[in-house]
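For this section, I looked closely at the sequence of one protein beside the tokens encoding its backbone, which the following lines show:
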Amino acid sequence: MITRAKAGIHKPKAYTIVTTTPKPNLDPFHEPRSIKEALAIPHWKKAMLEEYKALMKNNTWTLTTLPVGRNLIGCRWIFKVKTNSDGSINRHKARLVAKGFHQSDGFDFSETFNPVVKPTTIRIILSIVVSRSWDMR
């Protein structure tokens, strides 16, 4: 039963917020999801440095000014643990990849071309053409 004198009076609820700083996962099979997490682990930091050195050695980039009206395409680090057939760790692999999903067809690029055909595929097609006496253009 509530009397008129106590109507509308409520005791405020007390909330407690607890935060913790996550410690780096030192499990060698753990693949980090962010660059911040990877930089806290020595073997992933080493893998990132090796990838960066390889990109610089191969002259992968040329620094230029961004043309007017063009989109800047960012990049992202991908981390993978490569294992041997027996399940032991072969190496920690870090790759810097472009965020291609930010590109617009016809605006950032006009065509895509990937000339990857296995030689065995060409041989099979040519043998079928010859065996059936088809015309080839």
About this structure: The mean pLDDT is 83. Helices lie at 35-39, 42-57, 119-131.
